[in-house]
Amino acid sequence: MTDSSLRLPAEWEPQAAVLIAWPHAGTDWAERLDAVESTYVALAAAITRFQPLIIVVPDTTLRAHVTTKLRSTGAHLTQIRFVELPYDDTWLRDSGPITLREGDRFQLTDFRFTGWGGKFGAEQDDALIAGLVDEGVFGSAVHKRIDWALEGGGIESDGTGTILTTWRCLVQRHPEQSREQMSAILRESLHAQRVLWLDYGYLEGDDTDAHIDTLARFAPGDRIVYQACDDRSDIHHDELQLMGAELAALRTADGKPYTLYPLPWAKPIVDEGRRLAASYANYLIVNGAVLVPAYGDTADDEAARIIGEAHPGRTVVQVPCRPLIWQNGSLHCITMQLPAGLI
């Protein structure tokens, strides 16, 4: 395998499966386990309509519990594979493998996972990819460990050599490094040609330090879908307006502007006095469909319509995600897609 031929596929390319870890009483979901399980059940049912799903569980007891739940709600159990491994939390977008490919050969890129800059314990999550490799999930794929902190939610790939990320996140992870140094590391480790940076954009209640997948997403045909805010009274208005201007100024590798799809803004969701980060940009693409967060807001349907328009030819499925944002993430954050041919 020649390194120069590796690339990070776009999410809309064909997939083998989606990887998730099931919440349980030993995770931070313990207080609201029933509510969050309802989201995971809906997500599993939606994914298995279109493709396989790999579910990580810590033991056979939880495996049996999850199987019972899924059987009663119409998920396609023949599409599901369980893997038993320990984990600290369920945000597999950030602790799961970032898979590079060259034809039918694959590299599982395993960056250091630090619990979002040391905010939470992450020792088991940092070992998750190695555990999945040991369990034989990925066949003959090469496992490459990189001793540099990066989460999957912190980067977007267009599949053709461009990475989109945020300065706010990566400068928090690597305050000693310059933008130029970090760009070089991203280009080398992800085999990209260029890195585009956003300086603006954040969501109150987000403890990822402004992951790009809560803010702006590449879509096919040189499109970018992004979370906008049209409420001038909202604390996010000015920052997201500035981010929208940054996106409008970006150019494709061919020097053309991107086609932008601004998403509507959900009304503030407050839980015990804490503002929650309800982003519609945190959607998941699967084979033939796009799964869109729903928060019980009047903007849900319009967000789903716009995301569907940006991803033509795909079925749009809304997944209730209000329970997820209690822990500061949404649909994309709890999942990791695996490219076709990997498993």
Describe the structure.
It is a single chain. The chain has helices at residues 33-47, 60-71, 92-95, 115-118, 123-126, 128-134, 167-173, 179-190, 237-249, 300-310, 322-325, and strands at 15-21, 53-57, 80-84, 98-102, 105-112, 142-149, 155-157, 162-166, 194-198, 216-219, 223-227, 259-263, 270-271, 274-275, 284-286, 289-294, 315-320, 336-339. It has one domain: 5-stranded Propeller (L-arginine/glycine Amidinotransferase, Chain A), CATH 3.75.10.10. With 343 residues, it is an alpha/beta fold. The mean pLDDT is 96. The two termini are 18 Å apart. Helix content is 27%, strand content 26%. Keywords: Hydrolase. InterPro entries: Peptidyl-Arg-deiminase_porph. This is Agmatine deiminase family protein.
SSE topology sketch:
Layout: E1 15-21, H1 33-47, E2 53-57, H2 60-71, E3 80-84, H3 92-95, E4 98-102, E5 105-112, H4 115-118, H5 123-126, H6 128-134, E6 142-149, E7 155-157, E8 162-166, H7 167-173, H8 179-190, E9 194-198, E10 216-219, E11 223-227, H9 237-249, E12 259-263, E13 270-271, E14 274-275, E15 284-286, E16 289-294, H10 300-310, E17 315-320, H11 322-325, E18 336-339
Parallel strand pairs: 1-2, 2-3, 5-6, 8-9, 11-12, 16-17
Antiparallel strand pairs: 1-18, 4-5, 7-8, 10-11, 13-14, 15-16
Helix amount:
25-40%
CATH 4th-level superfamily: L-arginine/glycine Amidinotransferase, Chain A
Low-confidence stretches: none
- CA-based gyration radius: 19 Å
CATH C-level label: Alpha Beta
> Beta-sheet strand percentage?
25-35%
Strand order of the largest sheet: 3-2-1-18
* Sheet having the most strands: 4 strands, mixed
CATH-derived architecture: 5-stranded Propeller
Order of helices and strands: EHEHEHEEHHHEEEHHEEEHEEEEEHEHE
Mean pLDDT: 96
Number of domains: 1
**Distance separating the two termini:** 18 Å
CATH topology: L-arginine/glycine Amidinotransferase, Chain A
The tally of helices reads 11
Decide which structural class fits the backbone.
alpha/beta
Number of strands: 18
Shape from CA axes? globular
